[in-house]
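Recap from last week: sequence in, structure out.
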Amino acid sequence: MSEAAERRSERVDLRMTPAAKRTLQKAASVNNKTLTEFLLDTGLNAAFDTLADRRAFQIDAKRWAAFMAALATPPKNNPRLRKLLSRKPAWEK
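Predicted C-alpha cells:
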C-alpha cells in the first residue's frame, strides 16, 4: 500500500509555545494546508534530506580509483566563478 493510500493511524504529540504554534499555523495557512499537513510535509522533507545524506554508495575498485583521482586533481581556472565567489552576498550589501 502506498504512503498516500495508507490510513493515518499513528499520532505524535508536540509541546510548543503559543508563539511557535501561531507561526506554524500562519505558515500552514500561507501554503493552504492544515497544521497537520504542513508539519507532516515539512517534517518528512527534512527527514528525507537527512537520510539522503547518509546513504552508502558502493563502487568497484576501478571507479573508486577514478573518483579519488578526480578529487585529487586541482580545479581548472575559472575566472567567472572566481569573480562570482569574491562578491559579497546580497544580504551583506
